[in-house]
Amino acid sequence: MLIAALPHGRVVVAVSGGPDSTALLIALQEAGRDIVAAHYDHALRDGSDGVALQVAELCARLGVPLISERRAEPLPKGSLQAAARQLRYAFLERARIAADAHLVATAHTADDVVEGVALHLMRGSGIAGFRGMPARRGHYVRPLLGFWRSEVREFLRRRGVVAYDDPANLEPRFARVRARLFILPALERDRPGILRRFHAAATAASRWHDTATAQAAAAMGSGPLTPARLRALPEPVAVEVLKLMYARAGGPEPGLSRAHLEAMLRLTQPGRGGRGVDVPGGLRFRIVGDLMQVVPSQPATGEPARLEVRSCAGCDDRQATHLRAGLQLQVGFRRAGLRMRPVGGRGTRKLQDIFVDARVPREDRDGWPLVFAGERLAWIPGLAVDADLASPLDEGGLHVAITPMPVPPPPKVVRLEPPKALEEI
Questions:
Q1: CATH assignment of 306-403?
Q2: Which of 14, 69, 270, 394 has its CA 20 to 30 A from that of 28?
Q3: pTM of the model
């Protein structure tokens, strides 16, 4: 069995004890690869410790190092399969680090691709869902995507290896099992060869998706990301741009549903700034002026804002302001009716209008520290200072600073045309 070529270096092989992962382990060992096996016992059914023992005996016969672990913590809330997958991948990441390996190989096959495509089509999906599963995502690789389970079992039969068959693979309460046992066999009986055609179509969709991803990366590297630039891109490329932004902000992959992506695309249409939508991972996608951002949905809970005041004969510290001597200052936050007469402006202005003009997103405004002189708004850090309370540099007065200093929104940028190298998919 010629598995897909993998980059050089040590590989952690995820081994459940089933036929697919057992075949992958043996194939990589026969190919002379530097491998370490990793087995996670979910402890969900009687006899799981026996499966762990079988995996350990197999690795001993093959001379392959083994990292194993048995679940000792409660399952995360949610579906059983999702919770088990979350714990398993967390373990595999620990195993990868412990083994000093760059890659983790999992034993998904062509059947898994077709099952995934069927499930995604029933739920509704775009190109990313129709491709089934990628051959590689981050540290994780799937070398057996070009092989069917029947080929895997024949590979084991020729070597006289009997692997463990997990009873969960026959439990119809799981949607994937229902697709495997009922839906896909029925389609194959009615239209012989349709599963292989599904697999071919998924492979083609994977190539299209890879092209869109490459173009999205090129778009992100060619200038500031603005809503106008995103709207000018083909929609498949625009979707991949949003996914890359989300991933680079620390979002889990895959983390964005079709509904999330549609909501994000709607936000890029013309409209007022300061808009946003919450996305998984405690993040928020928002439009600030002419820029798109993915930021934490809640401000970081660090130390509260502290006011630092000292006498100053005059300096050019841009992180501070200078107010008239003798003022009694304190830190507060916005409330209804606040106004000031900003230096360089004409007349008084509402705090709300100053925030809007500075493109401060709505979710940031309540947490923006303000400096008051008594009941009067004296300084909006990073944005404006009251003209009646400001001290001219040549007169000296109070040097006033806030720690930590709020970060003003970026200035408005010039909109760029989409790169000419980008082509329609």
A1: 3.50.40.10
A2: 69
A3: 0.61
Mode of pairing for the β-strands spanning 35-41 and 66-70: parallel
Neighbours of 63 (CB within 10 A): 7
Number of Cβ atoms within 10 Å of the Cβ of 53: 13
CATH class name, domain 11-197: alpha beta
The DSSP line for 328-358 is: -EEEE---TT-EE-BTTSSS-EEHHHHHHHT
- How many residues does the structure list for the chain? 425
Contacts within 8 Å (CB) and 24+ apart, 176-185: 176/81, 176/115, 176/119, 179/115, 179/118, 179/119, 180/111, 180/115, 183/118, 184/114, 184/115, 184/118
Which residue's entry shows tokens 């373990």?
Answer: 91
Residues 6+ apart with CB under 8 A from 167: 45
pLDDT digits (tens, 9 = 90+) for 313-357: 778 788 889 998 889 999 988 888 899 999 988 889 999 889 888
Alpha carbons 393 and 390: distance in angstroms, whole number: 9
138: nearest Cα among 21, 253, 225 = 253
Collapsing DSSP states into helix, strand and coil, what is residue 403? strand
How far apart CA 144 and CA 21 sit, in angstroms, is: 10
Q: Which two tokens stand for residue 335?
A: 């409330």
Q: What is the CATH topology of the domain spanning 222-296? A: 3.30.465
Structure tokens at 129: 């869902």
Question: What's the rounded Cα separation, in Å, for the pair 295 and 278?
Answer: 10
Please count the CA atoms within 13 angstroms of the CA of 405 that sit on its side-chain side: 15
CA distance 412 to 391: 29
Element (H, E) at 275: strand 275-279
Strand pairing class (140-141; 376-380):
unpaired
What are the residue boundaries of the structural domains of the chain, listed by start?
A: 11-197, 222-296, 306-403
